[in-house]
Amino acid sequence: MSFLEYAPAPESRAILSLRDRYGLFIDGEFVDGRGTPFQTISPSSEERIAEIANANEADVSDAVAAARRAYDRSWSRMSGRDRGKYLFRIARLVQERARELAVAESLDNGKPIKESRDVDVPLVAAWFFYYAGWADKLDHAGLGANPRSLGVAAQVIPWNFPLLMLAWKIAPALAAGNTVVLKPAETTPITALIFAEILQQADLPPGVVNIITGAGDTGATLVAHEGVDKVAFTGSTAVGRAIAKQIAGTDKKATLELGGKAANIVFDDAPIDQAIEGIVNGIFFNQGHVCCAGSRLLVQENIHDEVVERLKLRLSTLRLGDPLDKNTDIGAINSKEQLERIRELSDIGVAEGADRWSVPCEIPENGFWYAPTIFTNVQTSSRIAREEIFGPVLSVLTFRTPAEAIAKANNTPYGLSAGIWTDKGSRILAVADQLRAGVIWANTFNRFDPSSPFGGYKESGYGREGGRHGLAAYLSPAPIGQAALSRPSTRGAVETADGAAAPKARRAVRSATRSAKAATKGSKR
Amino acid sequence: MSRLAVPKTYKLYIGGAFPRSESGRTYEVVSASGAFLANAAKASRKDARDAVVAARGAVGGWGGATAYNRGQVLYRIAELLEGRRAQFVAEIEEAEGVTRAVATAQVDESIDRWIWYAGWADKFAQVAGNANPVAGPYFNISVPEPTGVVAIIAPQDTSLLGFVSAVAPALVAGNSVVVVASERFPLSAISLAEVLATSDVPKGVVNVLTGSPAEIAPWLASHSDVNAIDLVGAGDLDWISLEVDAADTLKRVLRPESGPDAAAPALGRISAFTETKTVWHTKSLR
Amino acid sequence: MSGTSLVTARERALAVLGGEPDDATLGRYLHGIAGVDAVGLEQRAAGLGTRSIKTSSKKWALDTIISLIDLTTLEGADTPGKVRSLVAKAMSPDPADATTPRVAAVCVYGDMVPFAIDALGGAHGDPDDGLISVAAVATAFPSGRSSLEIKLADTAEAVAAGADEIDMVIDRGAFLAGRYGLVFDQIAAVKEACRRPDGTSASLKVILETGELVTYDNVRRASWLSILAGGDFIKTSTGKVQPAATLPVTLLMLEVVRDWHLLTGQRIGVKPAGGIRASKDAIRYLVTVAETVGEEWLVPHLFRFGASSLLNDVLLQRQKMTTGHYSGPDYVTID
Hints:
The complex is a heterotrimer.
Chain A: E1 21-22, E2 24-26, E3 29-31, E4 38-41, E5 48-52, H1 57-75, H2 80-96, H3 98-109, H4 113-134, E6 148-149, E7 152-156, H5 162-175, E8 179-183, H6 190-202, E9 209-211, H7 216-224, E10 230-234, H8 237-246, E11 253-257, E12 263-266, H9 272-284, E13 296-300, H10 304-315, H11 336-351, E14 355-358, E15 373-376, H12 383-386, E16 393-399, H13 402-410, E17 417-421, H14 425-434, E18 439-442, E19 461-462, H15 467-472, E20 475-476, H16 511-524
Parallel strand pairs in A: 1-5, 7-8, 7-10, 8-9, 10-11, 12-13, 12-17, 13-16, 15-16, 17-18
Antiparallel strand pairs in A: 2-3, 4-5, 6-20, 11-19, 14-15
Chain B: E1 26-30, E2 36-41, H1 45-64, H2 67-83, H3 85-96, H4 100-120, H5 124-128, E3 130-131, E4 138-146, E5 149-153, H6 161-172, E6 176-180, H7 187-198, E7 206-209, H8 213-221, E8 228-230, H9 239-247, E9 252-254, H10 267-271, E10 274-282
Parallel strand pairs in B: 5-6, 5-8, 6-7, 8-9
Antiparallel strand pairs in B: 1-2, 3-4, 4-10
Chain C: H1 6-17, H2 23-32, H3 38-48, H4 55-67, E1 69-72, H5 80-91, E2 105-109, H6 113-120, E3 133-137, H7 148-160, E4 165-169, H8 172-176, H9 180-193, E5 203-207, H10 210-213, H11 216-228, E6 233-235, H12 247-264, E7 269-271, H13 279-292, E8 305-307, H14 310-323
Parallel strand pairs in C: 1-2, 1-8, 2-3, 3-4, 4-5, 5-6, 6-7
Helix pairs in contact in C: 3-12, 4-13, 4-14, 5-6, 7-9, 11-12, 12-13
């Protein structure tokens, strides 16, 4: 036998006690949805996991109303100290049920258990711990004394990091004193629903967090609901754009974490073995279903061949297969639709003249799979070098000088993240300065931390999640005259942080005329 | 025996030059009492396009200048404005039909706002940025950077103060701007442009368009090479459509404000046109 | 088994370096090799450490570990009796289970070599043939602080006594002072001293003492230097300095060995030594070897564990796999 095949080492599913049907979590309880329910399946086997309720317009309204009641009656009146205690409780409960959550995540999403176990779930707990401590320290959030929560936050999250994105959204919202209606992605609702059970165990007051399941139309209804004060969305740039149009002319604030096409820049003096690891982690982590994935490898031309050769050697050791096997490196593609999109763009790459190389590996019979793939001989004009593929597909391009690397890295409407690999400190700082991207990883890639702000430039969205900036996104400054601390001598100064300009009381709101106009505008595009 | 005055031709300010509108159009600017004051240039969409090109060209140099330098340049504007107080006071008195005292107060407040924002240039990054204590062997820091090209629809109800209140904060972080001046009171904006042209502000950093905001704003809101739009003075326009247009390229948008506190001095007006960049770097002794 | 000839090694080094192996040429070459990012290296090692090895793979792994062990005693208190006891353990690690493989070698001080050979009797030979080698530490082990003459005499004496393998230490002081030429020459001279009258050579393991080199960049340069100078194996540590073998350091050395193989086609061995006490840790090393240079490296002439207490832990695990229940320390022998 080959030692490298290892023997199967599946994580036990016995730890799960899933229900056969899940309702909507509204006002602290599971209730039936009024839309047509749908099934969630495991993308690695296409087996059914559970039936999931579908929230229709009335359900969305109920959830928003519950959030509003909870905001008015309890959460906005509660002391920051007590809000923090609830968040600490949630963090601990997530730790206690970590393995269960990891197994459920891998089952429903298709990601390898080693990632859900070692990355996603620990970060979920860390996120709640971090923001728990903020709840009674809001005066230090950067908006001056006595900042206000916004009200009801509508949060719509994607399928690539289902529970982690939930934590990124809910933790800062609750710490700041908002209540929440969250909609997980249609293909990955399970961990959000287990999280609802955790909220019950934490005895969180009913309505503070409501979790409604459904497809894109449910999310759109939620975002458009007039009872919503804040919209937080992570997902595609196309949907983010539609949301930005939808909320135009309203008082709603928005945080949008959208697509990316990150450059991972490797200079010829890079720590080469770590750079290879960084490239692999950059694009093949989570099957490349990562908005900040390093999908464009920009390698200095004089080491191109060596890097590609080393990369192929390394990729040949990746193990694709059962997401619940502890030795799996590459899990399943999340859905048939996504698999088709990856295939389509990949075929376009070939048609455009790029050279495709895929890891020779066995593909399981059932489920959705795509072997890790590298395209060389890719031109900057190629679609695979410009469009977000959101899959395990890397496009390799070359550059000759730092200036050319920067120019090529920035030559995209996106601006979420980038990587730099070089041993030269001054070059790292200068290149980092000039990259138009919200997160720069130097000699590392795909690192996340609750204290570290994350978010994009340009069409990768706006607002930040994580850190003090992520907290400020759920707050507004105290109205003029109500902040305890002194103001600048010029009249009416209002301090806000991070892109959140002071909304003025006198702002004209014309929501009546808005929706009609927005709709017309939208349909033209 | 009074001397026959020499009237000024008011033109656009694009890329450090004072061109007429490429369209050749002008419109009549009248005083509060209805007297003819000047034929201001009526900028076209092509003028707006040229202004965006000029602004884009200036971003690298201005955003890349040291914060200390930007602060000095902004302070220099205040110095020059102080020297031309009388001119601006007279211009505002005539255009807005206000008393000398009111006009003087507007000019003085404008000068003071330049100074307030000039002082922020080398400080806001310290207030808006962070060292982040991540749980791992990494140096991790977040700093604000300029968003890029910012289009501004200046407040429409004042000649100078609204204009300065919107433009100055956008410049602090290193953005370059394309400003559509007050349609009714455009003359002080152009006079200010003359101040900017003789100050140390690099050409293209501030570009001033006069004419119809309703006509020009949609072109700026939909322009792909504009990164942000400040609709502070767009309250009387169809600003919701402008916001919808701006969403096409996910521009950062500030919504309209009105009244005496419009565009009041705030750190938030600086940070609204910044992007937080987080940099991670490994650290180890081994 | 025997090492590569010194002549071949020198020719290869000259070709790779493009000049005489003096301080300047070696310095340029070694400092031209890509650096190591410590955080990334440690993360990769940690990642390899999460592999879960079960059932048939684990059984194979445990037996492989035993067959790769240099069972070691390097004490001032070593006696012929202690060495005989060690050899007995090497030949029959688990007296209760005849299917247990033998270890690869016993590793002793030079003066103990005759006792080891005597005790091994017919079991003495090439571990690739299922026999047991005798390895001797030499060159003023562990500090290496003596004259070259003494180091060479130390080596020659052990080889003359019948040692199959010489575990030498580099002059860390010279290395840290940038005197790469001196380190190179000493390794080359020791290599020469490994030669036997019949023209064959004892295999040379070069101990870097990574705990004293401290940085990964140093470890990488010292690995290249040792291989260029003719080492058949590169070994992490003497076991007398902490930290001794670590997974990141071993991974790094394996990467050098991999790159050398890509460059020249020659396969060099790697020996982590010191501090590997648990089967679980040893399995992580096997995984790291397999995923870095390939599982063909998991043979005695290309990979060794320098260890003593590791063997008994592996035996306990092995008994658990055979019997299905947990074993205890009284069911394995002390040597």
